[in-house]
């Protein structure tokens, strides 16, 4: 009986109606949580979405995935990842329109499959956004070093002692994120204009230098990877005992799992539901519009890149700038490198904003100390949690080479997408009459397909990535059982109601 009672506590769920109306009334004097201000439009949401999605994926992963895994068929890899992300986006759109709240998939899990799973998702999202911000900050520093020829010891990657460039940009953007959502959206939207413009520039100019012979063979024949460690194999190959290979169909799928990093973070838009003026209409448009625009840009840029330079000769550090260098367009290379600095800046900013909203949701529910999620009376942002996560990201960016952990961002994103797909089906059954301004098509078939595809891509990630992910989740469970379970506001309210 005790075990049954314990399990019931772990899977207790929040009432979805309570979540929808939790900010209708002004907070009491003892409440740390004021309302988040509704200041965002659909264009702002797409600005945030494009701001976080267009970044490392175009400026770095295109070269790495093409050279090491897929060849010119990296276009197919980005398309596969984009389709999986779009299916998840339709699920997100239904939930974000119906339940516009900070916390996105964390809150969706809390209202459907239970508190323990919601905590796991939140812990997973913290990893995704923190690690993503730190990786991009180091990439930002590297591009800055290349443009201005700064000392590699303080701005490079391989020879870095302490990456001051990463620390600098994280602190500056952390201040912007803490000052307010209006300031964040203005900076983000300005940077988005720059990065979209440079993507269009790459496509327009690069098309004149495309040599279709460089894209032959389009899918290079499969090759066995000699001397590869078992831990670096995709999970499904390790389980089945198949030798690790590059290129071929397997290489395309492995690349799709890796470049999913490029789509990670678009769910940050769903975290802004409480700050959107008309979430019922704007959240679906913002999410779906973001992915359509970004997928088209990714595929087009990949076509130009692999057409300008043979995939075997691509740079894995600065592939786009280097491709224009190889084509004799040094002036264009400088423009691209400068734009990359701006493009990566917006990714870091949106990551920090998203972490603040997830932390705010956890604190409001009592799973983290409520005081650190307090809304600043002037800035209307969760300043303490934003500053805290900024410091953590700055430390990671300063000292830890994170390129080898980029896959962890993908596995975290795919895991969150899996939970959201499940949540749509569960809520359709448990709350069939709930107002849904946007309804995902073909439920339950479409969410099931979305979940299956997420699992399929996850199995194409390396064994060591799975091990690191499981260690992080285990650490999260320790935090939950040490603090969150005892201080959960939902648990306290249930205890009070039974007295």
Walk across the major sheet and give the strand order: 1-2
Fraction of residues in helices?
55-70%
The major pleated sheet works out as: 2 strands, antiparallel
Unreliable parts = 25-34
Beginning-to-end CA distance, first to last residue: 20 Å
Tell me the radius of gyration: 22 Å
Q: Give average pLDDT, whole number.
A: 83
Which class do the helix and strand fractions yield?
mainly alpha
| Total beta strand runs | 2
Q: How would you sum up the global shape?
A: globular
Q: How many helical stretches?
A: 20
Share of β-strand residues: under 5%
Order of helices and strands: HHHHHHHHHHEHEHHHHHHHHH
Topology summary:
Blueprint: H1 2-10, H2 16-20, H3 42-53, H4 56-70, H5 74-98, H6 105-110, H7 115-148, H8 152-155, H9 164-179, H10 181-206, E1 223-224, H11 235-240, E2 245-246, H12 248-259, H13 279-308, H14 319-326, H15 330-364, H16 383-399, H17 406-430, H18 445-458, H19 463-487, H20 489-498
Antiparallel strand pairs: 1-2
Subcellular location: Membrane
Protein name: Amino acid permease
Pfam families: AA_permease_2
List keywords for this structure.
499 residues, mainly alpha, two-stranded antiparallel ribbon, 67% helix, globular
